[in-house]
Amino acid sequence: MEFTDQRPEVSGRIKSGSPEARKRWFLDHYESVPREIEQFLAGTGIDFRGKRVVDLGCGDGSIALGVMNKFKPADLLGLELSPVDTEDLKTRAKEILGIDLPLGLRFGTCEP
Fold this sequence. Notes:
Low-confidence stretches: 1-11
Strand order of the largest sheet: 1-2-3
Distance between the termini: 23 Å
Largest sheet: 3 strands, parallel
Order of helices and strands: HHEHEHE
Radius of gyration: 14 Å
Structural class: alpha/beta
Number of strands: 3
Strand content: 5-15%
Mean pLDDT: 89
């Protein structure tokens, strides 16, 4: 049974959501969450550049992609309970941003 919730905050993250809702979901997570991380870390001296970073509970990978492109860690491993659909993430990155997934961005699964 496929989940068909059409609330905008939900429908964008599921493949049956409208293309517009999926684009909004992707861009919101790709852009705004890394911006919030940047604000949270402001003045702390914490710098991801060249580091190894783990995104535990990475969801669909769009935030991890945004963090990778904004903060330039050497490696970013996104972990989630279910496998990330990297083909879908590649497609959305190419169609919406015009980019390929960066080297060093990887995904895996973890236990609860």
